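Checklist before submission:
- one chain only
- standard amino acids only
- sequence pasted in full

Submission:
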Amino acid sequence: MSLKQSHRTLSRRVGYNKLPQILPVNRRSYAQAAAVQDTRPPVALFGLDGTYASALYTAAVKTSSLESTSKSLAALAEVFKKDTKLSVILSAPTLSLSDKSQIVQELQRHMGSVDKGETVKNFLKTLSDNNRLGILQDVCDKFGILMGAARGEIDLTVISAGKLDGKTLQRLETAVAKSEYSQGKKLKVVPKVNPDIMGGLVVEIGDRTIDLSVSSKIAKMNKLLTDTL
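Returned file contents:
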């Protein structure tokens, strides 16, 4: 999907007349276009956040700034992890133009100098202009999915009741990599904490889930007791 097509898709889904272009449109002959690198996202994403993430991916490929864009969004994702209220602030309908401008500048500061060609800077302005800064965190997540697919990676999500140390995560990664679950692909470990599982682990890889949590065992025991009684 070209960037121009992405804009059309966004316009249809979001309902505004025109999405400001992240990149200038260059006219190319058919022969030149055929020789250009495929700018289509590696997987199809859905939802408004997926649409924006896909448009950003296309823009980054066109400007040869895919890796720097990925690093910039990873930096922004860390900001959201450290400040859990940020997403709520960005979604506030009362933000003025001045507020949004200051927020974009602050986000740029957190990215540092890794934003090659200012692709992410232009993208943040697009989100700001269209009152969509509130979906930025989800866009960061969706862009990570696109990058993982482009690199041939598969997410290995490890959910635990408490934070796991690096050595434990590495042992899990090694074990899964040697199993059929890895599908021969490079694993990207995504640790998550969910106190509700009470203990044990829930491991998600691709479309498979291995539930070794205490809460799951208790649920099975309760069902067994209920069926017996």
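Reviewer check: Confidence is low (pLDDT under 50) at residues 1-20, 23-35.
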